[in-house]
Write a structure and sequence with these properties.
about 50% helix; about 15% strand; 9 helices; binds adenosine monophosphate; alpha/beta; Rossmann fold
């Protein structure tokens, strides 16, 4: 079972991807995390993508496609993969389909999380992360016990550079222009499942699990 998670930044893709990959033994791959790890490691690729990421633009297709497809070549012992944040353009989706076909497999389901813009902006601009352990907090909905400090390791929390309101607006614009059309792409292939991402984390998870099970023909209990 190979899944794709679609949705604007801050829709909860990362949270749901972690739970879904555990529930169905899938390999979780977040394109944003892959790129952030490259930057943290100070690699040449990290340097090439920094400017795009910090300004809320998408990294060019030829860069991200090469990075993600290279990682997909090694399936490990997972029952499939779950892509979180990739594909984000029609070109990426087509490259992914071609690579899947060449490998004799396919995307089985694309799950889209819907959240209105005002809620996205609240969620992202309030997000704080620990630069030490990558724990994620929210100033209103998930504050740390001590203001501005990570509960786990006491390190001062920071805001991701691309989580400022100005950059979020650009990331949303990129989403509507380039990524939202992928819903139609997967709908045409009868692979699209849509979930209301404003529901609680548990309720969204239940919806998504239901859609995956339906696709699996109730093979997973
Ligand atoms: P994310 O954490 O998924 O919101 O990704 C953070 C940033 O990484 C995005 O704003 C883009 O600059 C870049 N990025 C991640 N995934 C992709 C992708 N599939 N295509 C192009 N850029 C991407």
């Amino acid at each position: 079972m190979n899944l794709v998670l679609l949705g604007p930044p801050g829709a909860g893709k990362g949270t749901q991807a972690m739970r879904l990959s555990k529930a169905f033994s899938l390999r979780h791959m977040s394109s944003g995390d892959v790129l952030r790890a490259e930057r943290k490691g100070g690699t040449e690729l990290g340097d090439r993508v920094a400017e795009y990421m910090d300004s809320g633009k998408l990294v060019p297709d030829e860069i991200i496609v090469e990075v993600i497809l290279a990682q997909l070549k090694d399936p490990g012992d997972a029952a499939g993969f779950l892509l979180d944040g990739f594909p984000r353009t029609k070109g990426q989706a087509e490259s992914l389909d071609k690579a899947m076909e060449a490998a004799g497999c396919q995307i089985d389901l694309a799950l889209s999380l819907k959240v209105p813009d005002n809620e996205i902006i609240d969620r992202i601009t309030g997000r704080r992360i620990c630069p030490g352990c990558d724990a994620v907090y929210h100033i209103k909905t998930l504050p740390p016990a001590r203001d501005g400090v990570c509960d786990k390791d006491g390190i001062t929390l920071i805001q991701r550079e691309d989580d400022s309101e100005e950059v979020v607006m650009k990331r949303l614009a990129a989403y509507y222009a380039q990524t939202e059309p992928l819903e139609a792409y997967y709908r045409r292939k009868e692979l699209l499942g849509v979930s209301d991402g404003t529901k609680s984390v548990d309720d969204v998870f239940t919806d998504l699990v239901g859609m995956v099970r339906e696709r699996l023909g109730n093979a997973v209990s």
